[in-house]
Every structure is written in structure tokens, then in C-alpha cells.
Amino acid sequence: MEENRLGMKGTRLLLVVVTFSMFSTMVARLAISPVVPNIIDSFDVSSSAIGLALTGMWAAYSLTQFPSGILADRVGEYHVILAALALTSIASILVAISPSYILFVIFTIVLGAVAGLYFSPATSLLTAAFDETGQPLGIHSAGGPIAGLVAPIITAAITLRFDWRAGLLWTASVSFIAFILFKWYVTPVASPASPDQAREQVKLATLLELLSRPSIIYTSIIGTVGYFSWHAFATFFPTFLMEHGSIHPDTASTVFGLVFAFSIVGMPLLGRLSDSLSRESVLAFSMVCCAAGFSALLVGIEFWNLAVGAVGLSFGISWTGVLNARYMDIFDRQEQGTGFGLVRTVVGIVSSSGSLVTGLLIDYSGWNSAYGLVVVLLLGCVSLIAANKLAGWGW
Q1: Model's pTM, two decimal places?
Q2: Distance of alpha carbon 122 from alpha carbon 333, whole angstroms
Q3: Is there a domain that residue 395 lies in?
């Protein structure tokens, strides 16, 4: 996308503003994980009950990415992104003031739904702005781990001083600031699809044809396993360190934040490598790192286990920009909004079960079963990537 089409001084400024917007939508959701034990005590519910709520949040986040892609194609990315940021700020307040578990679940799902409006239009916007998409999409995705670094620290500090509700309430201001910055620095671009083109994109036959492409199925399997492991990590990792390793909550939040801190470097780095090497090779490397990180921590929570686990997991959650770039490599420009939104919705809904499945396994089988399943799924996905390479299937 050229500078004139952007209506901005340059693509670098666009990347900064959009990455901060990504950060703001992730902060609102990731701030919940460090206070899961507090929420369990406050509402007197089980781990699986909180897992159900967060699965609902991530499923709703995924579900709205398809309609957001359609909306972006029809009215432009600008308006959809602005709406997503404003609504995320409002939903964050509602989650923080939830008076009961039922309302907490409802508002958490609403938060996921409105935050989900953001990602597809933002990815489409950046894809059109850059020729080499791996690194910019990696930088954009790094807004997530930056949020993962900041959210536990600030949330834990505020919760310790006040309570978990105050620990979540601050995130609303971040989305509001992102809304102001995006509205200030970005101007709308009139490039929606024609009505006929838009109708064609949402025909059932067109959508089924898109989802049935071998390259889409293959990439979506990788994405589903990757996001399943991400949900298992993001929802319960601080609790895992506290319960499985008897680590103090402050230390657990710090380790949780450090994993995201390392991935801030990992995401652009893996994105840049994927521009030079194959996307699949970089995805396989990331998943091996993730499996190694979980395995090291399941063995024990000593210093070296923590070090290896944190580094492994940091690169193990750094694959998202590479996956998004691979999708954008597959789609034509005309189908990027709707097509990317569709696959993000399908993959996200299936993989969001990571929170619920992990919570159930924790309650009934323990941590070894919960995160052991994640390791098995990751290694199975790596085997699929290797088979595709060796057999030359060309997916």
C-alpha cells in the first residue's frame, strides 16, 4: 500500500500505531490470567469453570474475525478497527465490575467478541502496506507478547494493592488511548469491494471452496495446534507455576511476563527468517521450542528448568506472524479480508477449546496430563510439516 493510499506520512508510523492497537486489545484479555486464582476464590468456582469462561472469550474472539473481514472489505479497515478499539475499552470495564460469575462469563465473551473485530482488518491493512510481509506481521503480532509482559506486572501490582477488579480495570484506558492514536494518525481509505464482489465472497460455495483448498487445510491444522497450545499457556501458566512448582504469585507473574518479553524479539526475528526461509520450517522450529519448554517445566521447577522453559516457550509462541504471513501468501488480495477472517474464525473457534480442555485435565488428571497433551499435539504437528516437506505434497 503506497503512502497516498494510506493517507499517512509513512508505513513505519502505520506499523507503530497498529502494533500499539494490537497491544491494547491483547492487554485486555491477557490481564485476566494472572488473577485467575483470585477470580476462582471470589466466585467460588473451579479451574474448569474459569477455563470455560476464557474458552468462550477466545471462541468469541475468533468468531467475529470472519464478519470483521467482510466488514473491512465493504466499509474499509479504518472504521472496523476504530469500532473494535472503542468497544474493547467498554467491555474491559464491564469484565472488571462483574458482580457474579455468570455476568463475568457473559462480559468476558463480549470482550473477546469486540476485540476479535480488530485483527483481520489490521492484518489486511499491513499486508497491503508492505512487500515483504513476514517481518511487519511479526512486529504487529509482537504487540501481543508486549501485552503479555506488561499485563501480569501491572495487574499483579494493582491487585496486590487493591483487588483483582482494580487489576483488570486499568486495561480499559489502554484501548481508549489506542483509539485516539489510530483516529489521529490514520485516515480512512476508500477501497471497499464492490457490492457484487462482496456478495460473491460470502456465498456458501465460495467459502467452502476456500476452506477445502489443501494449502488452507494444511495451514489451518498447524494454526489450530499452535493456538490450542497458546490458549493452554496463556490461561493457566501462572497458576501452573504456583500450584505445580509452589512458586510465589509475584514470581509466577514475572516468569509469565518474561516469556512474553523474549517473544517480543522472537516474533520479528522468526518473521524475518520466514521471509528468507520457508514459512513451514520456521513454524516447525517454533513448535519444537514450545514442546521443549513445556517438557522442561513438567520435569521440575528448578532454576534451569525455569530458564529453559521460559526461553523455549518464548520462541514457542512467536509463530503467529509467520502463520499469518503464510495465509496472506495463499490468498489473493481480493479475498484477504474475507478469506483471512474466515480461516481465523474456524481455526480460532476450534483451538479456543485449549482453555477448557486444559482446565478439565487439570481438575481431573493433573498438570502432567494437561500440558503433556499439548506437547504431544505440538510434536504431531511438527511431524506433519516434516512429512509435507519430505513427500513433496506442496501444501
Answers
A1: 0.77
A2: 14
A3: no
